[in-house]
Amino acid sequence: MDKTKGALEAEISKALTHWEKHYLGRGSVSVKSDILRDMIIVSLRGILTPAEYSLCKDKEGLLTVKENRNSLVESGVDELKEIIFTITGFEVVSFYTDLSTQTGERVMVFKLSGDLQYGLA
Q1: What is the structure's pLDDT at 121?
Q2: 86 lies in which domain range?
Q3: Of 48, 77, 104, 118, which sits most exposed with the smallest number of CB within 10 A?
């Protein structure tokens, strides 16, 4: 692969921001991707709306927001895996995600079929 680690991480962040805007209807405030061995760890900040923060003030609302947001992302997981494959050339063997209703940050972890970091500058 002729791209640097930083260039690849930036390309992944840009592609996920594009996916968020087109699939979910709005994007996060910031996206940071990190390649670590056979994983891509993505941190998305500022994804909750003011109304969702308001709902998160009690446990029932918090669980509802988390469940709904996670369901939306999970429904697009095949498209996310395709984006990662197109950029990296590695299959995504597993995908993990969670959302903090405190900070409005989502973390995504893509576990790849091979070591992407190996050989990158």
Answers
A1: 60
A2: 5-112
A3: 118
